[in-house]
Amino acid sequence: MGFKYLRLARLRRVPVIPLMKSAFLREAETRKALAEFIVSAPRFSMDAKCREFEQAFAALQGRKDAVLFNSGGSANLAMLQALKNLGRLKDGDAVGFSGLTWSTNTMPIIQLGMEPIAVDCDPKTLNVMSRNLEERTRTVGIKALFITNALGFAGDLDRIRDLCKRRSILLIEDNCEAFGTELPAGRTGNFGVCASFSFFVAHHMSTIEGGMACTDDDELAEMLRIVRANGWDRNLTPMQQKKWRERFGIRSEFQAKYAFYDLGYNLKPTEITGFIGLHQLRYVAENFKERERNHLRLEAVAKRNAKLVPLQHDHIRSLSSFAFPVLCRDVATRDECIARFTDAGVEVRPMIAGNIQGQPFYLKYAKRIFELPGTDFIDRCGFYCGNYPELTEADLQTISDCLAG
């Protein structure tokens, strides 16, 4: 790009290196395939392509079942609602969550009548570590932990899983930002009873909007499908439908058309979501690798800048980077870095929602606020820029120059 374009971009605040350049991986191929599908598809409401995508995604992730939703946020809501419907969570239960997270991880806890309990995050990993959970549970009893695997990183999930098992804490993962990340003990998203994934445009793979919940628990998968479709049994197997209809005395197929068995919502995806998801799965393995290569290259530059805090991921075998996080040693340095990135045309964002306890909705509804020194440090001193396969050599060099200071 010429100097004139760069100057105009800066004046207009149009990023030269946005958080994401394309709606899809292999965008041209995907758009062509999508156009052909739209012309030939027999229907667009949820049907065979959605089920195919669910099966393919479950196989790739290594879980028994996957349930497709219209967004990752909907998957979060449905997981908690399903657990309540099954009686595994109830009104008033204390549910722990990662202090560094997103609104759709925390809002459902409040919306469903449970109490949110913030757990601190370690600045060196950006995530809840087992010691953070141990410290919180010394003074506060929690029924569940809804952990966020932030920005492609993760805590020591194997130890967290073991701690939750010992304390009878239900572990749930928000894995929307860490699809493809692996620890020696397994993939993120496979440590809890269920986990959510997001296919929003800026994530590891895109279906424009879309999300998934994965589980190995047959009863939970069944309830997720009931929750997704207004409390109906329409997307259950014939055997499952028979069970529910007999339980509630539904005597005919006609009566079953409008029988609602438990609390639910309309969170269904479309066949377009299913088709794009299947198409995009072809490219995710290389996408994961490219994101990790980019991250390690940029990280090597950042480590040479004494004003930046190096992030630790030696407990992670494969890092499927969601974005490139920058953690500065103080607020003044962060402000300088943000100005440098912005001036170079690199789009940046805060570290997710920061300490979410400071968000207006949280202050309105939460009963208890906890000290979160690690999360506060990440909030005050951190930001991130995009990391994705479409970054060019020139893009990576620009970001490297910004990191070098």
Describe what this molecule looks like in 3D.
With 405 residues, the chain is of the alpha/beta class. It has two domains: 3-19 and 284-356 and 364-404, Alpha-Beta Complex (Aspartate Aminotransferase, domain 1); 27-282, Aspartate Aminotransferase, domain 2, CATH 3.40.640.10. It is 43% helix and 13% strand. The chain has 16 helices and twelve strands. The chain has helices spanning 3-12, 27-40, 48-61, 72-85, 103-111, 130-139, 157-166, 218-228, 238-247, 253-256, 271-280, 284-302, 331-343, 360-365, 373-381, 393-404, and strands spanning 65-69, 94-98, 115-119, 144-148, 170-174, 182-183, 186-187, 194-198, 211-215, 323-327, 348-350, 382-386. The strands form three sheets. It has a seven-stranded mixed sheet with strand order 1-9-8-5-4-2-3, with helices on both faces. A hairpin with a 2-residue loop joins strand 6 and strand 7. Helix 4 packs parallel to helix 5 and helix 12 packs parallel to helix 16. The relative contact order is 0.17.
Short description:
With 405 residues, the protein is an alpha/beta fold. The chain contains 16 helices and 12 strands. The protein has helices at residues 3-12, 27-40, 48-61, 72-85, 103-111, 130-139, 157-166, 218-228, 238-247, 253-256, 271-280, 284-302, 331-343, 360-365, 373-381, 393-404; strands spanning 65-69, 94-98, 115-119, 144-148, 170-174, 182-183, 186-187, 194-198, 211-215, 323-327, 348-350, 382-386.
